[in-house]
Amino acid sequence: MSAASWLQLGAMIAVVLVTAPLLGRYMAAVYSGEKVVGDRVFVPVERAIYRVCRVDSDKEQRWTVYAFSLLAFSLVSFLALYLVQRLQHLLPLNPTDMPAVPENVAFNAAVSFMTNTNWQAYAGEATMSHLTQMVGLTVQNFVSAAAGMAVMAALIRGLARRRASTVGNFWVDLTRGTLRILLPLAFVVALVLVSQGVIQNLAGFQTVETLQGGSQAIPGGPAASQVAIKQLGTNGGGFFDMNSAHPMENATALSNFVQSWAIVIIPFALAFTFGRMVGDRRQGRAVFAIMGVILLGMSLIAMFAEGAGNPRLDAMGVDQSVSADGAGGGYFEGKETRFGTAASGMWAAFTTGTSNGSVNSMHDSSTPLGGGVALLHMLLGEVSPGGVGVGLNGLLVMVILSVFIAGLMVGRTPEYLGKKIQAPEIKLVVLYLMAMPVAVLGFTAASAVLDGALASRANTGAHGLSEILYSYASTGNNNGSAFAGLTANTDWYTTTHGLAMLMGRFLLIIPVLAIAGSLARKQSVPAGAGTFPTHTPLFGGLVVGVVLVVAGLTFLPVLALGPVLEQLSL
Hints:
Layout: H1 3-32, H2 39-53, H3 63-86, H4 103-114, H5 124-127, H6 130-160, H7 170-195, E1 206-209, E2 215-218, H8 223-232, H9 253-277, H10 281-308, H11 311-315, H12 340-353, H13 368-379, H14 390-410, E3 415-416, E4 419-420, H15 423-447, H16 451-454, H17 461-476, H18 491-520, H19 537-569
Antiparallel strand pairs: 1-2, 3-4
Helix pairs in contact: 1-9, 2-7, 3-4, 3-6, 3-18, 4-18, 6-7, 6-8, 6-18, 7-8, 8-9, 9-10, 9-12, 10-12, 10-13, 10-19, 12-13, 13-17, 13-19, 14-15, 14-19, 15-17, 15-18, 17-18, 17-19
């Protein structure tokens, strides 16, 4: 990699190390109900919301009621977004006269944004009206992210409380996460993006004359506001078809850096939130380190893979040491020269590690190794650092599994934060671990034998399998990024992708809430000589190993037939 690439990666690490602890401390105070900056503004607004919605903010919920509230809110969100899409031709703020969204695409998009996946089987500027983008998609970017963060808060309370029957109030957690965390951050990030040239208006297409004397339609719309929350909420749905590779969504190298930071900052900050809420900051630092080690490793592999170029082109004598405009060496197929290969590789690792579906290059054009890293990163299960809220949930589930394995090794009942990990929790962990692979591998296998599904591939052979596998890995992990080589707006894919998104969201969230309820009821036990310390580098290494082994045993066969085989063929 070039010196500029190393500088960019180093700057990102430094900014995250400075800002994540500060944001984590603030979020811990928000979810703990402590006094924080902005109470004079937020408290009256929250009280008005509770009064209108008839929410008793002082009454907490058992995990079953908490889960029912989440499911009810998600159902209403799905129906509202579906109706907005189907009726958008009758609604205002439609300067480009967009027709109603087709039924299958509307179903897929409604499920996608409600589950915080933001998988897009459509082109944004050619399908959605401005009202649908703002009232439908952008709103879901906020509340679906806040719902995931609420579940995270419930799980932490389950770990921290002793002999408790409740894990919090979903409606209070949802409101606080939206108003106090996501809205202020999104406002600031949107202003920065507008300053860099990301558009924010209510205009339609404007026809302009090009320098060559031709004409071109320039799209308008409220892009910056949606881009800000799509990154902060690890949503990823693009205002435009080309997502963050589009110059009006991601105009400059600075906007690319800011968006990269926005993608990872909340997931990393939640590690420090966890440490403060359980009363042991060492645990938060340990979780942060585990997340960071995996993400850094994936980022470096992807950056080197894209920067090294294509060995077949080297064999043909093609000079890959520098791009056509001198932007730096590497494999530039499908990438923006204003970002370069290293920034594209880092972005791919960041988005697939955080369940963020945005792209600033076409993953279908990546080297087999670079594309394989993005694919594997999703299949690890949203843990490095994962989506907002759900990423910490996933990693804590892996921590509980690691504690159980460690307990077996030392011959003691496993404990985590003073809570005994017993059969009920491990059964729920197993259910959690099985849900995503069933969705991903089941639908991939079916698509690999159906002629109609195979016809949607842009390529045959190993790369074609990677295209299919990537789509279900993305939807089943609520990621949303696309390999860009699969025609996914068919009835088969819109339906099965929708089902994969539902499984990847709710078959993981429900076991997490059940674990929270189970742990909250337990009494803490004092640490003894055989207690396995869970804040040390040794334990962190064990967790990383468990994450890699679980994913490897589950997905290595299909990866061997896809990106691994393709890389070896070079």
